[in-house]
Design goal:
Layout lengths: L1 H29 L5 E5 L6 H17 L3 E5 L6 H9 L6 E6 L1 H4 L1 H4 L6 H4 L1 E9 L1 E6 L7 H10 L5 E4 L5 H13 L4 E4 L3 H10 L4 E5 H9 L3 E6 L26 E7 L5 H14 L3 H9 L3 E2 L5 H21 L6
Parallel strand pairs: 1-2, 1-3, 6-7, 6-8
Antiparallel strand pairs: 3-10, 4-10, 4-11, 5-8, 5-9
Helix pairs in contact: 1-11, 2-11
Length: 328
C-alpha cells in the first residue's frame, strides 16, 4: 500500500512538473485569446501615438484579435510605463514608447523604478535623428557660420531643449564642448513651447525632431543646420549630418519601440515580436512612417536593443554629470 501511494506521489509530482514547465508554451499556443492593448505614454496625435495606431491596424488581422491603443500620457512616459508594469503578464498589454524612457528620463527626473531592469524592448519600429534648427533671422546659414557667429556673440546665444536632461539638452552641451561655444540652455516642457520661442526669437537655436520642425521650415520661420542622424534625412536632403561637419560624437538616433516586461512568458514575447516584424513590412505602414520623417526600424534583437540602451544611457549620464546636472 505504501509502495502504491509512493508511486502515485512520484507520478503526480512528475505530472505537475510537466504541466508547470509547459505552462508558458501552452499559454502562447492559445495567445491571444482576447484583445491586445498597446499602452502609449504620450497624447493622441503625437508621433508615438501615430506609430502605435498604424501598427495596431496591421497587427489586428495578423493576431486575429483587436489591437487597441490606450493613451496614458504624462510624466515623460512614466505613467504609461507604470500602467504596463501593473498589467497581467498574459500578453494582453504591451507598450509603444521612445527609447529615451530608458536611456534619458532616469537621468532627467527621479524615477520610482529602474526602467533598465523592468522594461524590455521587443522590436524597433522606427528611428530618426534630431536636427539643429535656428530662427530664420539668425545671420548664419550653415553650422560653420553659426559657430563663428556664436563665438562673436559670447553669452548672447540661447538654445532650447524640449526638456531638461534629455538628448535635446545634452546635444547643446556636446556642441559647446566640441566647438568651444558657450550657448545658454533654456529648458521647456515639450516641443511646442520650445519651437514657439524659437520662432519668436527668444532662443536662437533648438534641437528637436525633424517632423516637428518641418512645418516651420516650410513657412520660412526656421532653418536647419545639421542632423544627428548617421545619414541625411529624406525630409531635409540638403542638410548635412553632424558627422559630415566633423562632429562625429553628435551622431545620435532616437527610436520608437514596442516594449514588454522581462517576465512576460518568452513564447508570447517571440510571437508578438514576429507579428510586429511582419507588420513592419506592410507597404501602407511603411508609407505612413516615412511621411512622419522616420526611417524604418531594424531587425535588432531585444538583447541588441538592450545593449544599445545601456550604451546611450551611459553616454547621457556622463554628459549630464559633466555639467553637474541633477535629476528633478
Amino acid at each position: 500500500m505504501t509502495q502504491k501511494l509512493s508511486r502515485r506521489v512520484v507520478a503526480a509530482a512528475a505530472l505537475l512538473t510537466t504541466l508547470v514547465g509547459a505552462t508558458p508554451a501552452a499559454l502562447a499556443q492559445n495567445w491571444p485569446d482576447k484583445p491586445v492593448r498597446l499602452v502609449v505614454g504620450a497624447p493622441a496625435g503625437g508621433g508615438v501615438d501615430v506609430a502605435a495606431r498604424v501598427l495596431a491596424e496591421r497587427l489586428t488581422p495578423l493576431l486575429g484579435q483587436q489591437v487597441i491603443v490606450d493613451n496614458k500620457p504624462g510624466a515623460a512616459g512614466l505613467i504609461g510605463a507604470g500602467d504596463l508594469l501593473k498589467s497581467p503578464r498574459d500578453g494582453s498589454t504591451f507598450m509603444v514608447q521612445l527609447n529615451g524612457l530608458v536611456s534619458e528620463i532616469p537621468h532627467a527626473v527621479k524615477v520610482p523604478f529602474d526602467p533598465m531592469k523592468t522594461l524590455r524592448p521587443l522590436a524597433e519600429l522606427s528611428r530618426f535623428g534630431l536636427v539643429m534648427a535656428a530662427n530664420a533671422q539668425v545671420p548664419a546659414n550653415s553650422l560653420p557660420e553659426f559657430v563663428n557667429y556664436s563665438k562673436a556673440n559670447k553669452g548672447k546665444i540661447n538654445y532650447a531643449s524640449y526638456s531638461a536632461g534629455t538628448l535635446s539638452h545634452t546635444l547643446g552641451v556636446e556642441l559647446n564642448k566640441a566647438a568651444g561655444l558657450d550657448m545658454v540652455h533654456i529648458a521647456y516642457k515639450g516641443s511646442p513651447p520650445a519651437l514657439q520661442d524659437l520662432m519668436g526669437g527668444q532662443v536662437q537655436v533648438s534641437f528637436d525632431a525633424a517632423g516637428n520642425v518641418e512645418p516651420h521650415v516650410k513657412s520660412g520661420r526656421v532653418k536647419v543646420y545639421a542632423t544627428t542622424s548617421p545619414q541625411r534625412l529624406p525630409m531635409f536632403p540638403d542638410v548635412p549630418t553632424f558627422a559630415e561637419l566633423g562632429y562625429k560624437d553628435m551622431t545620435e538616433i532616437i527610436w520608437i519601440g514596442l516594449w514588454t516586461t522581462p517576465d512576460m512568458p518568452a513564447p508570447i514575447q517571440q510571437k508578438m515580436r514576429e507579428a510586429t516584424l511582419k507588420a513592419l513590412q506592410d507597404p501602407k505602414l511603411r508609407e505612413a512612417y516615412v511621411k512622419m520623417g522616420w526611417a524604418m526600424g531594424g531587425n535588432a534583437t531585444p538583447d541588441e536593443l538592450m545593449a544599445s540602451l545601456k550604451t546611450s544611457s551611459e553616454k547621457q549620464a556622463a554628459a549630464l554629470q559633466a555639467i553637474g546636472f541633477k535629476p528633478e
